[in-house]
Amino acid sequence: MKLYTYFRSSAAYRVRIALNLKGIGYEAVPVHLLKGGGEHHTDAYKAVNPGELVPALEADGVTLTQSLAIIEYLDETHPMMPLLPPDALGRARVRALAQTIACDTHPLTNLRVLQHLKGPLGLSEEAKMDWYRHWMNEGMRVLEAQLANSADTGRFCHGDTPTMADCCLVPQVFNANRFNIDLAPYPTIARIDEACAQIPAFQAAHPAQQPDAE
Amino acid sequence: MKLYTYFRSSAAYRVRIALNLKGIGYEAVPVHLLKGGGEHHTDAYKAVNPGELVPALEADGVTLTQSLAIIEYLDETHPMMPLLPPDALGRARVRALAQTIACDTHPLTNLRVLQHLKGPLGLSEEAKMDWYRHWMNEGMRVLEAQLANSADTGRFCHGDTPTMADCCLVPQVFNANRFNIDLAPYPTIARIDEACAQIPAFQAAHPAQQPDAE
User: Name one GO biological process term (chains A, B) (predicted).
Assistant: First the structure.
């Protein structure tokens, strides 16, 4: 398998965690999102993913896009170390937790949106960071409520083994820490992030451990 | 089942289509997103969904959130009229198409974001609409490329029966039409939208057909 990745992309980070948890070896193809206006906007990369986003995964003769779709595909084709629970209600919960991050939080705070706020909208750095903190905190507030109010939450987001929800939580916390978001209001998120940090699969997926890390 | 819905919410619209396609009866509980500052921000609704978003679905003794997680749950628990293909690659494709809308497009153009642009950011109506058109067109461009360049696209997004991807496409086109986005650059999307419009399940889910329509 070939993973088009950028060390700091949190969507790529999710997929790296999933690949590592399942013990699937892969070739990392770095796509630099800043150099020369962004390598993801080159014709070569548009041919891989017309969405001009990372990650993309070449597997089984096709190119898959969208981090959550990729993780579900990996889970279906490599059933060892399942990343979704065996019951339909459990799967619905894990997917909803993942989507709270992947649909409601990250899309509002990712690189292309921050670039759009600074460029076409002409926002100041301070106003851009206000935007970042607003949506990041709103997402973390909801995720914390979902986790803290459920008996299904265990050592990890759902029970005592990592799931797709943890694959999303850890990169989101990495972003929060990078931009000095105070995690004190989110003790359950912080506790789960620490539990994940003990696991080699999560450690090896960390941005600082990537071949393209700066 | 009880669906917390708003006639014009495109995430709720997705779930209404899925329920109708499967022939699942449900009670619609309207949550007005504008009246009195938004009924989704009341304590009563926060107890239903701390995310303060629609839809939420009460089913099997629990409350489910996140439209795509809800649709997958309905598909797993009501296998008739499957909304995901039988093969893993097909499921990955349908999920990626759905997520192109639900992760990359809709979160940037939904009500809470538009309200934030006008309120805290103080953008003019014109600048707000520029933002709307920018992200809507970017999402439609990617979706069109994904659909037009694949032999898997049929009468619908994936083959000749509706899937979860069509449940997302139709509400997105409804939004585009509402804000006068020109669909000419997206002929495949427009063709699939017209095919869906022939189906009673899609017709009955249309915002204009809802009990809370204005």
Answer: L-phenylalanine catabolic process
Spatial separation of the C-alpha atoms in residues A211 and B63, rounded to whole Å: 43
For residues A91-110, average pLDDT: 97
- Over 90: is that where the pLDDT of A37 sits? no
Q: Does A142 contact B108 at a Cβ distance shorter than 8 Å?
A: no
CATH number, domain B2-81: 3.40.30.10
Q: Report pLDDT for B90.
A: 98
CB A111 within 8 A of CB A151: no
What is the location of CATH 3.40.30.10 in chain A? 2-81
Spatial CB neighbours of A207, under 8 Å, sequence gap ≥ 6:
A7, A8, A13, A174, A213
CATH 1.20.1050.10 domain locations along chain B = 88-202
d(CA B103, CA A150): 25
Q: Which of A149, A136, A72 is nearest to A104 (CA)?
A: A136
- Nearest-CA distance A52 → chain B (Å): 9
Which helix (H) or strand (E) segment holds residue A28: the answer is strand A27-30
Chain A contact for B59 (CB, 8 A cutoff): no
Question: A66 CB near a chain B CB, below 8 Å?
Answer: yes
User: Do B92 and A103 make contact, defined as CB atoms within 8 angstroms?
Assistant: no
Question: Which of A14, A89, A115, A140 to substitute to test the interface with B, most B CBs within 10 Å?
Answer: A89
* Amino acid in the structure at residue B205: A
A148 interface with B at CB cutoff 8 Å: no
Contacts of B131 in chain A (CB under 8 A): 116, 121
CATH architecture of structural domain B88-202: Up-down Bundle (1.20)
Average pLDDT of B43-58? Answer: 93
Those residues whose C-beta lies under 8 Å from the C-beta of residue A59, and which sit 6 or more positions away, are A1, A2, A73
Rounded CA-CA distance A4/A33 in Å is 11
Q: Is B184 at the interface with chain A, CB within 8 A? A: no
Average pLDDT over residues B90-117: 96
Q: CATH number of A88-201: 1.20.1050.10, 3.30.470.30, 3.40.50.300, 3.40.630.30?
A: 1.20.1050.10
Q: What is the pLDDT of residue B166?
A: 98
ipTM of the complex: 0.97
Asked if A60 reaches chain B (Cβ–Cβ under 8 Å), the answer is yes
Residue pairs spanning A and B at CB distance below 8 A: 116
Cα distance from B194 to chain A (closest Cα, Å)? Answer: 24
On average, the pLDDT of chain A sits at 96
